[in-house]
Amino acid sequence: MKHIVRANVEAMLAVLDVRPDALFIQSESSEYTHGCHPDFADEAEMLNERKFLSLDLNYGRRVSSGMYEYLRDNGMSAAEYEFFLRHNLREHCILGNDYYASNELLLIDETTRVYGGDIFSYYVLTKEYYERFNLPVMNTETNMTGGENAVNWMWKIWANIQRLRHDGVPVCGMTWYSLIDQIDWDTALREDNNRVHPVGLFDLDRQIRPVGEAYRKLIEQWSFTPLLPNGPLTLIGEWNVAAEQEKYEDSKKYFVRFGIDRLVRRFRFGTTTAANDSIPAPGQALRFIKRKSSRANGVYGCRADFGARERRNGDSFSRQKF
User: Fold this and answer.
1) Which domains are assigned to the chain?
2) How far is it, in rounded angstroms, from Cα 193 to Cα 185?
3) Which Enzyme Commission number(s) are listed (predicted)?
4) Which of 53, 202, 295, 305 is most buried, most CB within 10 Å of its CB?
């Protein structure tokens, strides 16, 4: 895993050398293990922490002491771990997460490990990942075989996405994988059976499936809804400090125009904030708006949440410049 993640980080660095404003969507499976027997509670807990490791390293997030020991025991040196902490590129990333009915696992006894279906479903798992990484999210893979089952699954995932967006999680996309049926996807390409796995929006003769019709209907129904209803997708890192300052100056006009400056003054004077100016610094203003008004959060969208949550998680904050 360390080699794959490092290759990914170095590829991002190479792209950023020529496109410093680039955004990256990395796709990773979102999973949960349910310990159904008391003897397997510790194993389930370990698996539910280990599942984050690839993204922890990719985003330069410090892991727990238990996971650090796990990495060292499995061949990662201290210098290799430090590489990931030094190259923290999370402000350029959208968290892509895949979700299938097989992503939740039941540990029943010593010999029984079975797929649990959508016990928690996409909402709970995505909320867990978002609260850990505080990045915009995109559903990067989902599917289901069968005519009516596939259609129902698609609407179920879409309903989860709408609830997530309603609750403030910036989900910016959904992906049915794939456009056409796959070959041998039922064995994850481990066996050369030349067998069609009917999970596409279209079959291999380019005939649309019922789920394809449903997907087209979904697009037609939601085509006039903003990608992120609660605000624009804004990811700003050190490469765009000048633009950030310009937006801050513009935000002053916004506050005055809509009378939010009065709310800011009441908020600031009623807390331990010592500054006398009525317009807070960029980070303070954004975090205040996120807490006090879901509508006002549209000024800078999900970006307001990064700083506040980062501090709560106790992660290194100095490098983020949010």
Assistant:
1) 2-222 (3.20.20.80), 238-313 (no CATH)
2) 10
3) 1.1.1.133
4) 305
